[in-house]
Design a protein that fits this description.
about 500 residues; Chloramphenicol Acetyltransferase; 18 strands; 7-stranded mixed sheet
Length: about 500
């Protein structure tokens, strides 16, 4: 059966407090001003968590919407609109919210294993150029036939980085489940104090950022999973024969992927181009004095590593050494040179260097960002934690080479969501060295979840039947009940239901 997603309703959710309308405008920071308006997306997949709960799907949806109005009282800038690349006002504009239904069970969707279809659960096309005054947040909640849910958020990178996005969803989830002790107040002022906005940002800088974010081409997104053993291998390879050299799991994995990209570029072109890796570095813990982790907006800048495959080694240890040097810069006084009014000169110098490099060399650019420390997999609305956090199926027609790293559900492995131009992706997907460690969109991570999802769906059906029908159905399910991968908790629930 073909999966079909039906839009049930579209509405705009606004803050419940009238006081929000009288808040002073939210100042953009200089980092916000340099960032294009485009939507970064995340999708939380929830199974039916508590089969004994009296909560209907309608009740959950209504509770979600009500708690969102309360959440927007706290995160009121995300309910407004950007004006002139300088500030946000009109906080009563609200957040577009889509409610949808899909004609299949969650387990059926996962069995098909199609990354491209993830966009059906999104409220917009991800990573596409958007107008400056586009809503900062878009939301869609899709209900599966079994009661499972996909909650998707699209956040404008103009004012929302990964930390801000996680703070929003954590607060919304805490309010929904009634855990008001788990709510932290966001800081809306620090970013613009540490990185003061400009009355006028040079057009050359804005054009450069547009170029870095958007390049015409056919971009493909794929999901590759690296288990803990593979990542440990990369780390060991990276420091082999280099006493005193240290690296993290993420840096080692990042450089392994970068090495594979360089190989794909070499295979795609007779004359390999210089290769640039830019990695997003969170500045909150690196400023002096230290910014609050609850600071909102964009509080990151790019660590930039450069290699020329024609004249430099591109083996893993050398790439790790190059990236470590780039990120280590942010552990020095360099971060302070980005701060304050004078920080504009440092950022301008960075932009000018990139402009010059792109005008002469036309290098390959690969962007990386790590979400593994954010804790998206812990976002609990009262239905349990998501069993899977996904990103997107396909970016817009003009985007860039981007890799997002996010932890697997068990916290030991890493999912790499890689967006590459079509030619390089085709080469990467056939690279034996890459595939020796990377599992392309594996289903095995979902096997346990599929089992639980199916049991949850069956329990829901049991609750709607008469007692004798319950007993009859349970008897029919005995082969599944005895399966070795079914844990004791499932069996206890079966006994309680019968």
């Amino acid at each position: 059966m073909k999966m079909e997603v039906h839009i049930v309703s579209r509405e705009v959710i606004k803050p419940s407090s009238p006081e929000v309308q009288h808040k002073k405008p939210y100042k953009l920071s200089r980092l916000d001003q340099l960032t294009p308006t485009t939507y970064s997306t995340v999708i939380f997949f929830y199974r039916m968590h508590d089969v004994n709960s009296d909560d209907t799907t309608r009740t959950k949806l209504d509770r979600c919407k009500k708690s969102l109005t309360e959440t927007l009282n706290i995160f009121y800038p995300l309910s407004g609109r950007v004006r002139g690349n300088r500030f946000i006002d009109s906080f009563n504009e609200g957040v577009p919210f889509i409610e949808a239904q899909v004609n299949c069970r969650l387990s059926d969707f996962l069995k098909h294993n199609e990354i491209e279809s993830l966009n059906r659960f999104l409220p917009c096309q991800p990573f596409t150029k958007e107008p400056m005054d586009a809503p900062p947040i878009l939301l869609q909640l899709t209900v599966f036939a079994c009661g499972g849910m996909a909650l998707a958020g699209a956040a404008s990178h103009k004012i929302v980085d990964g930390v801000t996005s996680k703070a929003l969803f954590s607060t919304w989830a805490a309010i929904t489940r009634g855990d008001f002790n788990d709510i932290k107040q966001p800081d809306f002022e620090q970013a613009s104090l540490f990185f003061p906005p400009r009355d006028s940002t040079p057009q050359s800088h804005l054009s450069l950022m547009e170029t870095l974010w958007f390049t015409e081409g056919n971009y493909i997104t794929r999901r590759f999973v690296f288990n803990a053993k593979a990542i440990a291998t990369f780390k060991a390879m990276a420091i082999a024969g280099k006493p005193g050299v240290k690296t993290s799991r993420i840096q080692a994995l990042t450089c392994f992927i970068w090495k594979s990209f360089i190989a794909a570029s070499r295979a795609a072109s007779d004359s390999p181009k210089p290769s640039i890796l830019v990695e997003a570095v969170d500045l909150r813990s690196r400023t002096k004095p230290r910014m609050s982790y609850d600071s909102t907006g964009n509080a990151y800048w790019w660590a930039t590593a450069f290699v020329n495959p024609m004249g430099a080694k591109t083996e893993l240890p050398e790439l790790v050494e190059t990236l470590n040097a780039a990120t280590a810069l942010y552990e020095t006084d360099y971060t302070q040179t980005l701060q304050g009014e004078d920080g504009f000169e440092t950022m301008s110098e960075y932009c000018n260097q990139l402009e010059e490099l792109f005008s002469l060399e036309k290098p390959d650019l690969f962007a990386f960002t790590c979400w593994s420390y954010l804790g998206f997999t812990e976002t609990n609305f009262g239905w349990g934690e998501p069993f899977w956090v996904a990103l997107m199926g396909k970016a817009g027609p003009a985007f860039r080479n981007l890799t997002v790293l996010i932890e697997t559900r068990d916290g030991r492995g890493i999912e790499a969501w890689i967006t590459l131009d079509e030619k390089r992706m085709a080469i990467l997907e056939r690279d034996p060295e890459f595939l020796a460690f990377a599992s392309p969109n594996p289903r095995n991570l979902w096997d346990f979840n599929l089992c639980f999802i199916n049991w949850s769906c069956m329990f829901t059906a049991l609750k709607k039947r008469k007692r004798k029908r319950k007993l009859q159905t349970v008897c029919m399910l005995l082969p599944l009940y005895k399966a070795p991968h079914c844990c004791g908790n499932f069996r206890k629930q079966v006994r309680s239901q019968s």
